[in-house]
Amino acid sequence: MAKTGYYGEYGGAFLPEILIPTFKELEQEFARIKSDPGFWKEYVHTMSTYSCRPTPLTYAENLTKHFAGAQIYIKREDLNHTGAHKANNVIAQGLLVKKMGKRRVIAETGAGQHGVATATMAAKYGFECTIYMGEVDVLRQRPNVFWMEQLGAKVVAVKDGSRTLKDAMNAAFRDWAANMDSTHYVLGTASGPHPFPEMVSYFQSIIGQEAREQILKYAGKLPARVFACVGGGSNAMGLFGGFMDDPVELVGVEAGGKGLESGLHAARLASDQATVGVAQGYKTYFLQDDDGQMRETHSVSAGLDYVGVSPILAHLSETGRVRFAAATDTEVVEALKLCMRKEGLIPALESAHAFVQAFKEASELSRDECIIINQSGRGDKDIFTVADAIGDPQWEKFICNKAEEYKNA
Amino acid sequence: MLESYIRKQRENKKILLMTHIVLGYPDFETSLELARTMVAAGVDLMELQIPFSEPIADGPVILKANQEALKAGARLAQCQQVAQEITANLDIPFLYMSYYNILFKYGVDRFAEDAAAHGIKGMIVPDAPPEEAPEYVTALRERNLSPIQLFTPKTTDERMSYLAGNASGFIYCVARKGVTGQNTAFSSELDGYLDRCRQATDLPLALGFGVKDKDDIDFLRGKVDIAVLGSSAIRVLEDKGVEAVGDYISSLR
Ligand SMILES: Cc1ncc(COP(=O)(O)O)c(C=O)c1O
Question: Is A364 a catalytic residue?
Fold first, then answer.
């Protein structure tokens, strides 16, 4: 019999002893709500009144013409409240926290999207909230830090290690080890120790369930391929979850950063540079050195440069059910520009990774086939990064003037 | 064997001291000197931590020591070599402390084999619970190394028995919730917990997390077999240097 919490050889719960009862409790609570149809109903109702669910599936007519191949559909997770799929997971965990009777939540965040979503949920449900964010990410995602603080959360800039997502996650585990009685850790992706990969995938499966129904209605058939970016893997697991048992090709796109040969990337399953390891409480593919020390990762998008990856995706990659690709920073900015000009849509830099690969493959397919791209989030949070990448002189002037104003004030 | 050594030492001492050093912090020469100084000051057992980039059970002091050691270029091979030198020259039992990935990447069996050959007596691996890493327990036991298990105030009686069944040498009782390096209020509240620990196993008990001064040691004398000093010794090292660590340890008894 397979051990619980394992997907092939990946997964598990490699936890310090102090956290084991907390995880046992979480596992039980999750099992309870999963078998309770009332919970899912309450969740869907909350998302349809507080967020924008069902999110639309948009037919990208101009991009379809441009590539002259498959019909391109875009699942609009950017239209969720707070601008990304992160809201799905967070609201569901919020409902769970209420049932568990805890009053404080903590979370890790990379791009800041999960932090903003958690801070929003905490405000809505009246929980105290602390968000851990790597110092590097605090610097490059300032607007999200601003919002988290305005929403009443305390943002802690984590100065350990590479000062990015994985270090924020470690800091959150340390907090939890001291405060588990009052606190729930709202882990933001389909990674980490069991039951998080399964739980987060389950909550995010709302994306795929809707997308399947919508594409059957609009296109009258299943898509040939679906594309999602992969940081920890939650938006990908969400979309893929709707098509797991269908003859649909599932494609996950990781951060190719400055190119796979440069070593500056976060391609764990799309490159042969990651190896199996155990860190952050679970077993999966990590970008690590021969001694087992985690390597630094790089991506233009803070939400994708995570050192590990969902154990479920590691397994699905091995069995061939999900195909993996990587998109470079440069390709991502080009895809974003094209998408803005052709469709008036502004995907997050994270999501734009999925667009890169879909654009590469659309013209291989015939016109009577269709594909779905998951637009996991909206791009306005990335304005500083995108403006830098594009090198817009007007924007630079505006920032300089604003800085002068602050200095003189 | 570790357990018989502890029992023997206890015939003359009311409480034993176990210290902790991070190999390669701030450099390997200092690690050697620290080990020597600590043994001269009367330490009975010592943990040699192999630095890891994600030490999730450790608080700020040890976390920083891990990261500084790695930044200074500490590699596993050097850690093993220095550990071997330490065990060859100093006459107390030494344990490895690290995280599971270090063993897993190297090969758990091979890691245990080398450790035994290098004179190590046991290991503390906080993220290797026996149900997830049974091969770790087996690999150590096959070589007469002790897999040290941890009890915490949150551990149920039932689980304490399970953990004790996967342990040898002694049990490491974590004094409180949280990670290493914060203060612990040593009060009568600990007594009930230590009673539960005692009920669950016949193995000697060590207590760590937040032990820092003579008062703490006095409090623990008669309650546990071993007091563990982690972050506090590193703080002394950072503030006052290696020699002061010797004085600090001598002052505790
Ligand atoms: C918009 C957006 N998409 C994708 C991701 C990547 O996360 P995941 O792989 O869990 O979906 C993030 C993470 O912050 C994000 O903000």
Answer: no
